[in-house]
Structure formats: C-alpha cells, structure tokens
C-alpha cells in the first residue's frame, strides 16, 4: 500500500513504471503508468511513459501518438515528449506532424540533434532534397560542435 498524497503516490507509480520499462517489462510498466494517471489524470510524465510503452509495443502506434500528444499538451516544455511524439508520427506516416514535433523537440533542447536527422529523413522521403540537405548539414554541424 502506498502512503502520501495522491500526487506523491502517482509519482511513485510513475517511477516504478520507468524502472519496469528499463527492464523491458512493458506490461507491468503500462500498468504502473495507468495507475499513476488514475491518481493524477493531468500528470504529463505518466502520459509520456505510457506513450513510450505503446511505441515499443507493436501495433500500438495510434495509442502512442495519443498519449505522447497529451503529454506535450500538458507540458509544452517536454522536449523528450515532442521527440518521441515525432517518432510515433513518423512511424504512423504523419510526416508533417512529425516535422513539427521534431522541430519543437530540438527548439526546446539542442541535445536532441537526432531531431535534425529525422527531419532530414522526412524531407528526403517527401522528395524535398534541398531541405533534406539543409537538415543533414545542420545535424552534422551540431554533432561536430558537440
């Protein structure tokens, strides 16, 4: 039994979910994130964790997008939320949305240089070779200056 306020209990479930996710126990991690959200339905990180679980589970990409989108709606400064939302959107063929998510991730945290690479990949896939080149170049410049 957990003690404390619902918010602290929710944070505990979230932390447990993160550890289970790291161990590869996606089912238990999902359960913990859902418990966290029952106690604190506006907890951005719990939506983020749940979105990561769904992204890792085959056939759950739409759920991943829904949860990750909710995480960044609740915390517009969550760079990692935007990054993984971009990945889910990319996998789901939502290329324009993915471009915006990756740009947001990089704008919020320059440590997400992979966002630039993913943007280049999307532009290349869409046939815009000039923009693809520009973003490949930005990516290379950024990792060389790191």
List keywords for this structure.
146 residues, mainly alpha, Serine Threonine Protein Phosphatase 5, Tetratricopeptide repeat, 8 helices, 77% helix, 0% strand
Give structural notes:
- With 146 residues, the chain is mostly helical.
- It has one domain (6-112): Serine Threonine Protein Phosphatase 5, Tetratricopeptide repeat.
- It is built from 8 helices and no strands.
- It has helices spanning 6-22, 26-39, 44-56, 61-74, 79-91, 95-108, 114-125, 129-144.
Topology:
Elements: H1 6-22, H2 26-39, H3 44-56, H4 61-74, H5 79-91, H6 95-108, H7 114-125, H8 129-144
Helix pairs in contact: 1-2, 1-3, 2-3, 3-4, 3-5, 4-5, 5-6, 6-7, 7-8
Separation of termini? 46 Å
Compute the gyration radius: what is it? 17 Å
Please report which band the strand proportion falls in: under 5%, 5-15%, 15-25%, 25-35%, 35-45% or over 45%: under 5%
Number of helical elements: 8
Task: Output the CATH homologous superfamily.
Answer: Tetratricopeptide repeat domain
Largest sheet: none
Q: How many structural domains? A: 1
């Amino acid at each position: 039994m957990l003690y404390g306020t619902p918010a602290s209990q929710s944070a505990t479930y979230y932390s447990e979910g993160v550890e289970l996710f790291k161990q590869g126990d996606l089912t238990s991690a999902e359960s913990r994130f859902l418990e966290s959200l029952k106690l604190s339905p506006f907890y951005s990180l719990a939506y983020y964790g749940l979105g990561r679980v769904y992204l890792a589970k085959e056939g759950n990409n739409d759920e991943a997008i829904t949860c990750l989108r909710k995480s960044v709606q609740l915390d517009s400064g969550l760079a990692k939320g935007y990054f993984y939302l971009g990945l889910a959107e990319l996998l789901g063929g939502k290329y324009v949305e993915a471009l915006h998510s990756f740009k947001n991730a990089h704008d919020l945290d320059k440590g997400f240089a992979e966002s630039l690479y993913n943007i280049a990949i999307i532009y290349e896939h869409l046939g815009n070779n000039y923009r693809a080149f520009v973003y490949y170049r930005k990516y290379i410049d950024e990792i060389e200056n790191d």
